[in-house]
Design brief:
The complex is a heterodimer of chains A (about 260) and B (about 800). Chain A has about 260 residues and is of the alpha+beta class. Chain A contains twelve helices and 14 strands. In chain B, helix 17 crosses helix 18. The termini of chain B are far apart. Classes of the chains: A alpha+beta (about 260), B alpha+beta (about 800).
């Protein structure tokens, strides 16, 4: 990797200041995307602002009808947290199936969401549950957060602090993994609750998206059969040596069906 | 007295001696070696598959911080190309095309990853920084990234002097006999397949450290090699012109090879040369990305085969036409893989009386291809074992009965095949029956029905394979084009108080030699394995050796040790006869004890060795002091492990995903020294075979860019891709080596792929699917069953 300066601020305000002062600085949380990129010399930040010492970004707690998860919560913490398991078991399941043990022990929910890898897991849960993203500046609805491949509504000096998940009546997640990377090739997170019926599709396209036809079908009839006949248009979906757009489109239906079945 | 511990000898399930070292992080790998004053090399590699180098400007790099040297091919004047160790002849008797394989690219790059320049600096990061400052003026040329592209009329030439990109056009067998048999055949079955290109991916990436002592003129190379003596020979004699006596090659602990660390690589020559040029040690360590584009790849065949059968299903003749990808240059043993390690195996376990095979080896703008676990034999086995299943289905025979009908029968050994090999022993009926019973073949249809009720498609597949290993009789391989002998060397050094050091030319990079070889000594000399030290991997310590590949270490290296132990016993008997005042003919030796026959007079090996090193009372007129013997063992034949593998799979029809649910291996590997190590070797080989069948596939795009260039896109098998692998053995002894052993290192990778694909095709039999190419990925299976109706 190339040389860079390293900062470890203790407060959110200090972190924001560091990022605002240096447009080439990058925030780092678990580092599971950034560190490999640095090692491959694909990225050349002037400085890394390590967020791991910021107390206000930590913790998982129930706040009324919502579950609030600090951006620094590692996947393993979400997977094993009793509040998460009780309130949104599908979210605990999703976290428990990200990457491998090493990834889950280091990677954080905030890092995953801010990076918005099309093949990441968490964006599906955030969009599929209609969560609210709390940043150092504002609150952003999930529907407004994911803008495109590796792109979010976050500004360069804006830090994701926590995610507030409305607790659904039921929710489920299913994914088909890429046989090599084990990232998501196509996944579906479905929920029914205070935010209505939502179906979020990850892995298949350049950015997580809602599947309106499936949402309508499920609103009328919450069952795997309701989505089984709904075909996803392959236009604009990702295509690579592991899965063509057509295959991914097919998997969207299969995963949605499985996610509904898992949600019960 | 050394008292024999019978449980440590041949057949004992002894825990591996080396595992304490490995499992506690105390292994000593090449990258763990750091020499005083060491510098670091970074290799600048071609980003293009095919380009002319119009110029290289290294001046900026040379001025970068920490840089001690920047070299290109212009600096390597007088250095030879990397040699090829095997020469194949064309059908017309002319030798194969053998273009130069330069250490650093000369005027042209021929694959992505081709080394262009080397930067040596005080730190690895400085070397890499400086390499980014080198400007290479590439004129990009059209590339041939596949054999189809390379063989197309008017295709760009990888090497200007090699017309048509054809390395050789070779054949074996009796074409006329095959044609005659086809003319009278009741059934003719055609099968075409591609054996997928694989990237070996040993856990430890390659590494090399060069060192030069100006005071003595001695060069030392520490390297991740399976055969350090061969590297010394090839690099010393052909590339750098260093006499053996001034060149030491050390291959310390090596973290997996699978063939990819047999070959002499450019980086070894670079660090050895640069260390002398700079007067400082030079280390190079590959990262995973470099490994993908510089370690020799495996397989990559395209084949069309035709089988002729009579009305009863007896095989009459086999006709095979194969194209084999060599990549951009000939790696050390590349030419022999699709010829003498492939076409000679096309009889398989069957009595097919007439076989003809032709093989065209093709240059392409891809990484060189060479032997990878199994080397040629997996390709032959996949072809045959799929072909038999296809033939059974097409002609209406039961696929197990069709195999049984055509097996070489136990009483037919030694069996001469029509493709050069003579099998010494085996019992294919026995391994088949044992495997079918262990896999509960008879109960499969019930399991299939149960799976169907769960929405899964269940299939079962057999593979009855043979391989030729224990490589190899020197005179035979010499007549076939090998440029080296393939004997092995073993030294047994009995120390004064009776402990033993074994020096072997074989090399252990995961096989457990330190344990298995110690067990041979325990069994024969009665020395506990705790008192046996196995030394390998250092040309300064071991007299000579040809290394480890082709499942040869025990069959050839172990036999050399056995011969050396015979010499120890013969000498010990003379000493014992002297000490016990008896005639040599009356001395008996068994597991550590010399006895005078018919008496209670006895001396232990330790007493004899003490007398040999403290020769106060010693037959000094007739016998030299000391107790150390060396044997060179040249095998009389290959060894022929064989067996039956049965795979059982379930497919999710909605996604195309294959789940391996059961795998049964019954192998005849000859005499088993350590059953636990054999099981581990078979399980590891099966994992790689399953990897080839379901997951692994190296993909280049049309421009020759490596699309599967990292673990993100190249799917290695993981624990949850596998099923419990049940391993059993059925032994017939090898008839021509003193241990009766055959070899077990490759059987898994050879037997497993067709068993898995036969199972996948069986699962889809109601869908009209007759073949699925490897790797059988979910997308591929889904695409194939799209639009088909059951």
């Amino acid at each position: 990797m190339y040389d860079f300066a390293y900062h470890k601020p203790a407060t959110l305000a200090d972190a924001v200041k560091l990022l605002a002062a240096d447009p080439d600085a990058k925030a780092i949380s678990g580092g599971h995307t950034l560190i490999p990129a640095l090692k491959l010399r694909l990225n050349r930040p002037s400085a890394l602002v390590d967020l791991s010492g910021i107390a206000e970004m930590k913790g998982i707690r129930r706040e009324g009808d919502a579950l609030v998860i600090g951006a620094l919560a590692r996947h393993v913490e979400v997977a094993e947290n009793a509040e998460v398991k009780a309130a949104i078991p599908a979210l605990a399941y999703l976290a428990a199936h990200i990457g491998d043990v090493q990834v889950r022990n280091r990677g954080t929910i905030g890092g995953s969401l801010a990076n918005n890898d099309p093949a990441a897991d968490y964006p599906a849960a955030v969009l599929g549950l209609g969560a609210t993203l709390h940043t150092s500046k504002r609150k952003i609805a999930a529907d407004d957060f994911f803008l495109g491949m590796f792109t979010t509504a976050l500004e360069p000096d804006e830090i994701l602090v926590a995610v507030s998940f409305p607790i659904p009546e039921r929710a489920g997640y299913a994914k088909m993994k890429n046989p090599a990377s084990r990232y998501v090739m196509a996944g579906a997170f479905v929920s029914k609750g205070p935010m209505g019926v939502r179906v979020a599709i990850n892995g298949a396209g350049p950015c997580v998206f809602r599947q309106a036809a499936m949402e309508a079908a499920l609103a009328a009839n919450w069952s795997p059969e309701a989505v089984a006949a709904i075909k996803q248009d392959p236009e604009g979906l990702n295509s690579d040596i592991h899965g063509s757009a057509e295959y991914r489109a097919h998997l969207v239906t299969v995963m949605a069906k499985r996610a509904v079945a898992a949600a019960g | 007295m050394n008292v024999v511990t019978p449980f440590e000898g041949i057949g004992a399930r002894v825990k591996r001696k080396e595992d304490l070292r490995f499992l506690s992080g105390r292994g000593q790998y090449t990258d763990d070696i750091n020499r005083p004053g060491q510098t670091y090399a970074f290799i600048l590699r071609s980003p293009h598959a095919h380009a002319r180098i119009a110029g290289i400007d290294t001046s900026r790099a040379a001025a970068m911080p920490g840089v001690v040297g920047v070299f290109t091919s212009a600096d390597l004047a007088g250095i030879g190309g990397l040699p090829c160790g095997w020469q194949i002849h064309n059908k017309d008797g002319t030798p194969m095309a053998e273009p130069k394989h330069p250490v650093l690219a000369e005027g042209k790059v021929r694959h992505v990853g081709d080394p262009v320049a080397v930067v040596v600096a005080e730190t690895r990061a400085q070397a890499r920084d400086a390499a980014e400052a080198i400007t290479v003026d590439y004129e990009v040329l059209p590339a041939v990234a596949s054999m189809a592209a390379a063989l197309a009329p008017g295709a760009p030439l990888v090497h200007e002097g090699v017309p048509g990109n054809i390395c050789y056009d070779w054949h074996i067998g009796d074409a006329a006999a095959v044609e005659a048999a086809f003319a009278r055949a009741a059934h003719r079955v055609t099968f075409e397949t591609t054996n997928n290109r694989l990237v070996p991916n040993a856990m430890e990436p390659r590494c090399a450290v060069g060192e030069y002592d100006a005071a003595t003129g001695e060069h030392t190379l520490y390297t991740t090699s399976q055969n350090p003596h061969v590297i010394r020979l090839l690099m010393g004699a052909f590339v750098l012109n260093i006499p053996e006596a001034k060149l030491r090659v050390v291959a310390p602990d090596v973290g997996g090879g699978f063939g990819s660390k047999i070959y002499h690589y450019a980086e070894e020559a670079i660090v050895t040369w640069a260390a002398a040029r700079l007067g400082r040690p030079v280390k190079w360590t590959a990262d995973r990305t470099e490994a993908f584009m510089s370690d020799a790849h495996g397989r990559d065949h395209v084949t069309r085969a035709e089988l002729a059968l009579d009305a009863e299903g007896r095989f009459l003749a086999l006709k095979v036409s194969t194209r084999a990808n060599m990549g951009a240059y000939l790696s050390t043993f590349a030419p022999c893989v699709p010829t003498y390690l492939y076409a000679t195996l096309l009889a398989g376990v069957y009595t097919t009386p007439a076989i003809y095979a032709e093989v065209k080896a093709v240059f392409t703008n891809t990484v060189p291809v060479d032997a990878y676990r199994g080397a040629g034999r997996p390709e032959a086995t996949f072809l045959l074992e799929r072909l038999v299943d296809v033939a059974a289905r097409q002609c209406g025979f039961d696929r197990v009965e069709l195999r049984r009908k055509n097996f070489i029968r136990p009483e037919q050994f030694p069996y001469q095949t029509p493709v050069a090999l003579q099998y010494d022993s085996g019992n294919y009926h026995a391994t088949l029956d044992q495997a079918l019973a262990a896999a509960d073949w008879a109960g499969f249809e019930a399991r299939r029905a149960e799976a169907k009720a769960r929405g899964r498609l269940r299939g079962i597949g057999p593979s009855t394979y043979i391989e030729a290993c224990g490589i190899a009789p020197s005179a035979v391989v010499g007549s076939l084009g090998a440029r080296a002998g393939l004997y092995e060397v073993g030294t047994i050094r009995v120390h004064p108080t009776g402990s033993v050091t074994v020096l072997t030319g074989a090399h252990s990079h995961g096989q457990g030699h330190e344990t298995t070889f110690a067990q041979l000594v325990a069994d024969k000399l009665g020395v506990p394995i705790a008192k046996v030290e196995v030394v390998h991997g250092d040309t300064a310590k071991v007299p000579f050796g040809m290394g480890t590949y082709g499942s040869r270490s025990l069959a050839v290296g172990g036999s050399a040790m056995d011969r050396a132990m015979d010499k120890i016993i013969a000498k010990g008997k003379k000493i014992a006869a002297h000490l016990m005042e008896a005639s040599v003919e009356d001395i008996e030796f068994e597991r550590g004890i010399f006895r005078v026959a018919g008496t209670d007079k006895a001396k232990s090996l330790a007493e004899i060795s003490l007398a040999a090193y403290v020769p106060h009372n010693y037959p000094i007129e007739e016998l030299e002091p000391g107790l150390e013997e060396t044997a060179f063992y040249d095998p009389k034949n290959f060894t022929y492990p064989g067996g039956c593998h049965v795979a059982e799979v379930e497919i999710e029809p909605e996604t195309g995903r294959v789940h391996l649910v059961n795998f049964t291996a019954v192998d005849d590997v000859g005499r088993v020294i350590n059953p636990m190590i054999v099981e581990g070797q078979v399980q590891g080989g099966v994992a790689q075979g399953v990897g080839q069948a379901l997951l692994e596939g190296c993909v280049y795009d049309e421009e020759g860019q490596l699309l599967s260039g990292s673990m993100l896109d190249y799917a290695m098998p993981r624990a949850d891709d596998l099923a419990p692998v049940s391993v059993a053995t059925h032994t017939t002894l090898c008839t021509h080596n003193p241990l009766g052993v055959k070899g077990c290192g490759e059987v898994g990778a050879i037997g497993a792929p067709p068993a898995v694909i036969n199972a996948v095709v069986d699962a889809l039999r109601d869908w009209g699917v007759t073949h699925i190419e490897m790797p059988a990925t979910p997308q591929k299976i889904w695409s194939i069953i799209q639009g088909r109706t059951r």
